[in-house]
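Researcher: Batch entry, complex prediction.
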Amino acid sequence: MTEAVTRRAAMLGAGATAGSLLFAGSGAKAQGKPSELRVGITTFLSGSASVFGVPAKQAAELLFEEVNKAGGIGGVPLRPIFVDEAPGTDHLVGEFRRLVQNEGVQLIFASISSGSCLACTPLSDEMKKTTVLWDCGTQRIFEEGQHPYAFRTQGYGTPEVLAPLLYLLKHKPDFRTLAVINQDYAWGRDSWELWKSAMDVLKPGVRVVAEMFPRFGATDYSTEVTRLLAARPDVILSTSWGGDLVTLLRQSAERRLFDRSTFVLPVCEPSLPILGRTMAAGHIIGTRGDHWNNHPSPKDPARLKRFVDAYRAKYNEYPIYPCHHMAQAISATQAAYAKAIAAKGGGWPNDAELAAAFRGLTFDTPTSSITLREDGQGLEDQIVGISSFNTQYPFAVPKDMILFPAAMVSTPVGRKSVDWLKSLTPDFLSQIPAPIAG
Amino acid sequence: MKRESLLAALGALALVVCAWAVPWLKFVLTIALAKGIAVLGILLLLRAGQVSFGHSMFLALGAYTMAFLAPMEDEVLLLLPAAALIAAGFGLVIGLFLVRYRDIFFGMLNLAFAMVLYSLLEKLYAITKGTDGIRVAALSFAGTEPERGTQEWIVFGIALGLAILFGLLVRFYLASPMGRALAGIKTRETRLEFMGVPARRVLLFAYVLSALMGGVGGALVAMTTRHVTPQIAYWTASGELVFIAILGGAGSALGPFLGATAFELVRVYAAAAVADAWQMILGGVLLVVILFAPGGVWGLLSRRWRA
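Model: Structure tokens for the complex:
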């Protein structure tokens, strides 16, 4: 009996393997205009970062459907192929190869995690496949090397940390002590280094009373909250995100830490709908860009409303910043193809022509327009504001918003972020624009 | 025995054909071979009845040695032995202490060391770049720097060659008195001591050899992925190696490679088929193996011959 099962299992296994291998070999590269435009998308579908990855995937599905209904890109329908980046680098770089060599994708949207982006970008150089870095924030990508086929269609760590710092210096210029509580991994450390470098030159003499890096994914912050209550810092900075941030803020709210110190939370927007009224008013909040639901003067209000409404209607929740970053990557793709097809007089672009179209590209988002610099980095404006509540949203939204133009808060091409931040002077503060009305 | 070598030769040929027919699988198969070499080390310890839940530390040592040394010296022929030696040296140092323990204590202490290494890789941010990891600089092979396609074939070839080499080594080792003594540790250690065989030294030798193979596996992973992150030292990575050992079966030196290939292929096809539920498929496969084929893939094959 067992023998029979074994044989059948073996046959099945052999059949399945042979079938899939045959299937694998059939992904031939299309010449000329393809029957469909395949886009490989790496995102977190499992693990703690899926709080970003899954909404972004939903946004992608919504928008790809919308683009296809309108005739696709140059008459070619789009098909997203999603890949989970949770299993780690060795799996992901294998998947990158599979997407390119087997699925025959025309371009790849890579990665939420900075580690994944750092692993995929050199691969894009080697395989000469246009790669849109759609969400990761590490400044190392374009500052440590040149990547002819990689483009980041959103902001990155430096502006996303500098803008909240400038806002703090404008909003509460007399603070004297600061504590930091970041997740213990690359972004937590990087963002603190960026912040500290800029703070030390823009407002020298601030005393750092606590530097805490609790474990990534920690569920209990009672020790940290106790220490913060005792240290009484004027300002508490946390670039934490996801479940970690929700837990930290809930436990801080219970022990009235919000009453004693001003929080600066550059990446808190995705957590605000979950926190609801637990979040306190009067703290500095950021969203890694300018795409707040209550943006007072978006460039295309109808498009923003349509996107938010469609997303809410389909998934019964508000879109968060990764959804907007996904939308930006898709908008950039549309614009780049339009540019490349026009440049080729209606012909379908090859990999090099597509990459050439991305360089220096300007594309519209619902809230603004983004230009990709010569090094591939996108210039996305940053809006920072003070948490507040109104009748329209059941969660905190910013007020007294300041829009920081991307060019002002981004490291110039060819310089390293930390060096550039250290070269700033307090005069820089005079460049801060006035709050936008709304 | 003859059948085993025949199967090994056929397997190697099948891998080459697969890698040639389906270019992207070359990468997956190289990783599978690298992990297979590391799992050979787990197999040695399994012979002595010991399970290491921290074997990924040797992979990490090999991989990070590669990543740290590559900017200074790009010659693979020097880097690969260096990675192996550093992993073996580390294995010797902690092995002196670990071989005093057995069973759950042995497994957990290995896990503890691996997690200490993981934390160091993650926390010494200024040196290791933390979770973002380090890019492995461009490598040269015997003085030449081939282009990407050739290089992928070379790394695949090195992995296949080393897999055969270590497979043979382990086979001869297990057939030798030192290897036989490992089984003695599993059944009754006191008997070994009465025979005048120092059990600790027998286990230490196996442990250092397994560390060396872990280091080689890690170095190959680093050469293939060209980017190393601390995740390679995390306990889930160790669990993966034990998973592969179970999947492949501990009966033969071929087991780890059968297991590793099956594991990587199942994972890659599961991820391709259902991107958001591949873990379930992988878990299902392990359950099926444990329930219906306790001897792993190797057990399935060898049972067919006997029948």
